């Protein structure tokens, strides 16, 4: 067919890959190998040097080789989440990743042909149909990279989003990519022109178009130009490979390594984010979080080099949005400066870099741990663990907000954060909702872990009572710990008091084990998350018999949805209402519970469910954890309240005591009085016919 179409035997439908570069004795051919080998050596040296620096960090598990993380990393690279939710940067990533992947494939095919197949077997396979497909793929991938490049340049120099800081390094790297791609296409176009525009070269469409303006020029004049352009292409490629371990571009290979080294997301879609728990050894050695840069784990240090400074974390950070002194991007890049300025070779001696010289207390205490930064970060950087590690060291020096201090003291001395009378912890149940304590009857399906909020806050008490009533009406057996329950310790853990957390968690775990608890349900998303993750890690670490973490944890929104689905909660006719559900960070972003609360609300007759512009994984934090620390969180609450208002809802349904308070407060600040906030349990109980 090839002969029929082009009047040539298939083996003549090809190109000389070393055309016009003086390769009579193979000098160019092997010279190119030496140049590329040298460039890869520089790249490898840079990465190994970085690895030595990371290795100074503390121990962390090494990623397994034979699990699914390779597929997870490849999926993250080739199917970026941003393609859907941030189309502009998604297209740039697709263009660069797919374009460069195809270019690497095409170059590898040439290397295999020239240095293996032809050298050892005298056979060239890039001929006929294979050559035609190869030519088309080469040109299209080059065009794809040029598209990504044009969009990246437009964004950095014309759109100039505030989250992106463009440096000279960025300009050099983008310029280098342009030189590589355009010189490759031009060298090919000049070769086509010199060879008299063979028909089959139309399969290199971009190169062929570039060749057209040269048709009237004597080929003898084109040959030296081709020679220069061809070498320009090779040398710029070598430069890019050599630089691929350093400067801005150097973060891309580390980003891939970091994604590979990150825990693989479970199939239920929940995040693997969990805070490390201090162990006996650390307590004995008096280690207190991250005081110097090497106190982070090696993975924590690798995180710093993996940041490509895209600024997505900053855009989604509620603290940054509310003008609090925190930008997660700045925090990561400042810590990188700290690592770089105190690296192996700085001033001849590695000097410990103190993190307090690079990150301020104001930055650390502005974080709500909402996880929005981590959810959006393409490099899978763990910001929250770093914040907590640094808080641990700051608090050990007494650099701690007064509100946090009061909270800890109240929990330590009185047993609860508000300093209320602890003997009243078990007195929140109303006559209608009262259920036994486990001491009275441990033979129940669920333990309702009430939490401090239920025990001491009147509004949460009402929600918890409504929930217990729903369970009783649905015939679910449930018990409570009453005065045997202790604060869950989540706030202590996240504010850096690991020892207080350990004491509280061990006391609760001992009760769970003593009563043989198999299923726990909570109303507070923070309790839900910490019981599900850090408690189990602690139980595993202790592994000493009196405690174990073999229990299931479910949030009340999930249990309500499941009872509705089973027909155990039914509804009476209800007036029509426009309702939205405000996703709490610790059930939504942290644990992928998005559908259940919405399914429950949709089941209520007369409900029209609307969404806030920022909902599900994009939902804005309410700022509750800052309010608990008596830090300025009002503006965050106002932002969330504005989201609620803009959704058009008349009822804001929440699944978290803190969200409810913050949204209520925000609506009040904004002077909006026609939106009611209510916990999902109260809303469902009001609407139910049982
Ligand atoms: S931390 Fe992640 S999201 Fe933030 S700038 Fe760096 S790479 Fe981008
Ligand atoms: S966890 Fe939330 S508040 Fe903290 S840095 Fe990330 S986005 Fe900002």
Give a short overview.
By secondary structure, the protein is mainly alpha-helical. Helices cover 55% and strands 5% of the residues. The longest helix is centred in the N-terminal third of the chain and has 35 residues, at 87-121.
Describe this structure in words.
The protein starts with a helix and ends with a helix. It is built from 31 helices and 8 strands. The protein has helices at about 1-5, 25-55, 70-80, 80-85, 85-120, 130-160, 170-195, 205-210, 220-245, 250-260, 280-285, 300-305, 310-315, 320, 330-340, 360-365, 370-375, 385-395, 400-415, 450-455, 460-475, 490-495, 500-515, 525-530, 535-540, 555-565, 595-600, 625-630, 635-645, 655-670, 680-685, and strands at about 445-450, 480, 520, 550-555, 575-580, 605-610, 650-655, 675-680. Helix 3 crosses helix 10 (about 250-260), helix 5 runs antiparallel to helix 6 and helix 21 (about 460-475) packs across helix 31 (about 680-685). It is mainly alpha-helical. It is elongated. The longest helix is centred in the first third of the chain and has 35 residues, at about 85-120. One iron/sulfur cluster binds near residues 319, 326 and 621.
Helix amount, in percent?
Answer: 40-55%
Count of alpha and pi helical runs: 31
User: How many angstroms separate the termini?
Assistant: 77 Å
Strand order of the largest sheet: 2-1-3-4
What are the bound molecules? iron/sulfur cluster
Compute the average pLDDT.
88
The counted number of beta strands is 8
> Approximately what portion of the residues adopt beta-strand conformation?
under 5%
The shape, in one word, is: elongated
Unreliable spans are none
The major pleated sheet works out as:
4 strands, parallel
Gyration radius, in Å? 31 Å
Decide which structural class fits the backbone.
mainly alpha
